[in-house]
Amino acid sequence: MMSNLKHKRVTTHTLLEMKNRNEKISMLTGYDFSMAKIIDSSGIDIILVGDSASNVMAGHETTLPITLDQMIYHASSVVRGVKRALVVVDLPFGSYQSDPNEALRSAIRIMKESGAHAIKMEGGIEIKESIIRILNAGIPVMGHLGLTPQSIYKFGTYTVRAKEKKEAERLINDAKILDELGCFGIVLEKIPASVSKKVTKAVKVPVIGIGAGSYVDGQVLVTHDLVGLSTEFNPRFLRRYIDLNHLMSDAIKKYIEDVKNLNFPSKNEQY
Predict the structure, then answer these.
(1) What tens digit of pLDDT does each residue of 144-180 get?
(2) Residues 25 and 208 sit within 8 Å (Cβ to Cβ)
(3) What share of the chain is helix, strand, coil (3-state, %, to 5)?
(4) How many structural domains comprise the chain?
(5) What is the pTM of this model?
(6) Is 143 within 8 Å of 183 (Cβ atoms)?
(7) 243: Cβ contacts below 8 Å, ≥ 6 apart
(8) 165 and 256 both lie in a single domain
(9) Domain boundaries, position 176
(10) 202 shares its domain with 234
(11) Residue of 186, 189, 191 whose CA lies nearest to 162
């Protein structure tokens, strides 16, 4: 039986129970009220208000430009549309990396102003103090390792991470640290399936993969990619379940044609 038939509201405890009974966790991104309602009512376990909004909603090349205020706006919109899923919000670039006090202030603002349930942060041991501060304030934290998009200029490429033994060992160690600190889950992005398998076995908390193979505890995708609204992004790990781009385009073209030809509105569509 699917988890959405068992639980009224998904919590961090729900996710741990799901891992322990080997039930896979489903996670998608959401950025607005209307889409969040559809995603939530479909039975998703986690909605991530991702800083990927910078790409798919605002049209930026990277996730770096999006601000804390903008993330709070997106998160507030999503929360109003959600009744069941756990809502996790990305701390955006520049809001936590340099100063644990600033990290705590950013996390508190997200929780207070959006009504979200948890935050997500990219990085391992280098953000340890920030994670400790936030957890001590009672705010659940999800980690994120592997290809961390906020560091894209450091990496210089969107290629698979942790292919070399040294980087893989460092990633596994970082995951253990996040687990020990008290993070409720970890996202692994674009790493070999063999590495994510080791991480999943090495930590107690759920591991959610994106381009990290099938041995993890759950999967996450960007909703706009999954439904075909975004068409420029075509990595191996992406499966498109519907082509909304073409469906919407055809509908809009038909509307334009009907307006031009006086077929809309009809007599039944006016007062």
Answers:
(1) 999 999 999 999 999 999 999 999 999 999 999 999 9
(2) yes
(3) 45, 15, 40
(4) 2
(5) 0.95
(6) yes
(7) 228
(8) no
(9) 3-240
(10) yes
(11) 191
Are 189 and 251 in a shared domain?
no
3 band by pLDDT with thresholds 50, 70 and 90: very low
Tell me the torsion sign for CA atoms 103, 105, 112, 135.
positive
pLDDT bin (cut points 50, 70, 90) of residue 7 is: low
Q: Domain of 115: which CATH number?
A: 3.20.20.60
Looking at the structure, do residues 189 and 68 belong to the same domain, yes or no? yes
Instruction: Please give the helix or strand (H or E) that residue 121 lies within, else none.
Output: strand 118-122
**127 & 208 share domain:** yes
Residues 40 and 169 in one domain: yes
184-213 pLDDT, tens digit each: 999 999 999 999 999 999 999 999 999 999
* Phi, psi of 164, rounded to the nearest 5 degrees: -80, 145
pLDDT at site 1: 42
Query: Do 263 and 150 share a domain, yes or no?
Result: no
* Contact between residue 117 and residue 45 where contact means Cβ atoms under 8 Å apart: no
Q: Which residues are identified as catalytic?
A: 189
